[in-house]
Amino acid sequence: MLSLEVFPPKPGYPIDSVFETLDGLADLSPGFFSVTYSPRGDNGCRTEEIACRIRRDYGQESLAHLTCLCHGRNEIEAILDRLSVCGVENVLALRGDPPENSHVTGSDFRYAFQLIREVKKKGCFCVGAAAYPEGHVESPSIHQDIDRVKQKVDAGADFLITQMFFDNRVFFDFLHRARWRGIEVPVIPGIMPVLNFRQIKRIIYLCGVSIPARLLRILEKHGGNSGDLQKAGMEYAVQQITGLLSQGVPGVHLYTMNRVDETRRIVAACGIESMESSA
Ligand code: FAD
User: Fold this and answer.
1) How far apart are CA 243 and CA 270, in angstroms?
2) Strands 62-67 and 2-6
3) Model confidence pLDDT, tens digit, residues 196-227
4) How far apart (Å, rounded) are the C-alpha atoms in residues 211 and 219?
5) Is 94 touching ligand 1 by the criterion CB < 6 Å?
6) Distance between CA 24 and CA 203 in Å, rounded?
7) Is 62 helix (H, G, I), strand (E, B) or coil?
8) Which pLDDT value is given to residue 278?
9) Is the CB of residue 244 below 6 angstroms from any atom belonging to ligand 1?
10) Where would you tag: which of 22, 34, 112, 139 has the fewest CB atoms within 10 A of its CB?
């Protein structure tokens, strides 16, 4: 199964552009579209609106991301009620990140597992959680990190989606550790195509993801030419996805970055369309 992640346009930018993205991707009929969440500005409401319209206007499954760091319990309740009313049945329950150099106040939740418990209490949502094949950037150790993932599953998470990784061995090592730790829920690998040098540098910096030598060579060779980098980055993503599928991974979550052409080319090159239609 393929799932696709989109994000709401930044506050102040028209929301319509994300619907152009969805228009361009809807016929790929992914297992679900996920919509990222930011509590800042009006972006939380945008996540709700987009997730609801994916259900209503596109007739597709949607997964609304929800972060707890800046919200009280009543706000979370209200968001969940609105999502439920418009038929959104899936929530990715996350902690979120505090804004840079600021202290978070007004939250009743400190960690994602507390939010997961809260969402599960509603009784009407399938709940996903985040997992980090190389460990969360704040985690003191890989061992403690897997315990935190287990804590989220014990709190009710029905499935996990991973942070990006650029070496499939990292994913399979994580999967092995997770199964060994008694985590039995589906783990969906998250794949981010490298399409932009500055963007990928920032993400690596923020998320602490490692770069294998083969990708580093691509970045060094094509970093100065955006067209060549995009082509090589897409090829790299295709190889990662086909490698995962050939080793029996049942699904892949693609971080589309709202890019229609690149997403379609990657999906077509992986043969996922034909795989879906023959299923
Ligand atoms: P948690 O599971 O709460 O973990 C956060 C940190 O706290 C970890 O270091 C963990 O080890 C530690 N921890 C957890 N429990 C305990 C405990 N009991 N005691 C001590 N320490 C503990 N961010 C957004 O803002 N919006 C999004 O839409 C979004 N989507 C994402 C989608 C995916 C697939 C992924 C992988 C990440 C996403 N993020 C998003 C980023 C996420 O919010 C950050 O990575 C955040 O820093 C951690 O979120 P979490 O839900 O994993 O938190």
Assistant:
1) 10
2) unpaired
3) 988 888 888 899 999 999 999 999 999 889 99
4) 10
5) yes
6) 25
7) strand
8) 37
9) no
10) 139
For residue 112, which atom of ligand 1 is closest to its CA? 3
Tokens 């959680």, residue?
A: 129
Decide: 96 in ligand 1 pocket, CB within 6 A.
Answer: yes
How many CA atoms does the CB half-sphere of 121 hold within 13 Å?
11
Residue with tokens 């080793």: 247
Residues 6+ apart with CB under 8 A from 220: none
Q: Using an 8 Å Cβ cutoff, are 223 and 215 in contact?
A: no
Q: What is the pLDDT of residues 81-122, one digit of tens each?
A: 999 999 999 999 999 988 776 666 668 999 999 999 999 999
pLDDT confidence of 277, banded at 50, 70, 90? very low
- Please give the structure tokens belonging to residue 212: 């294998």
Contact present, 250 and 1 (Cβ < 8 Å): yes
Q: What is the pTM of this model?
A: 0.96
CA 47 – ligand 1 centroid, Å: 18
Query: Across the chain, what does the average pLDDT equal?
Result: 93
Tell the residue number behind the tokens 């998320």, with chain if given: 207
Q: How far is the CA of 109 from the centre of ligand 1 (A)?
A: 12
Domain ranges of the chain: 2-270
18-38 confidence digits (pLDDT tens): 999 999 999 999 999 999 999
Q: How far is the C-alpha of 245 from the C-alpha of 263, rounded, in Å?
A: 17
**What is the 116 CA–ligand 1 centroid distance (Å)?**
12
Number of H helices, E strands in the chain: 11, 8
**C-alpha distance across the termini of the chain, in Å:** 10
Residue 243 has what pLDDT?
98
Residue-wise pLDDT for 157-191, tens only, equals 999 999 999 999 999 999 999 999 999 999 999 99
> Does the beta carbon of 138 lie inside 6 Å of ligand 1?
yes
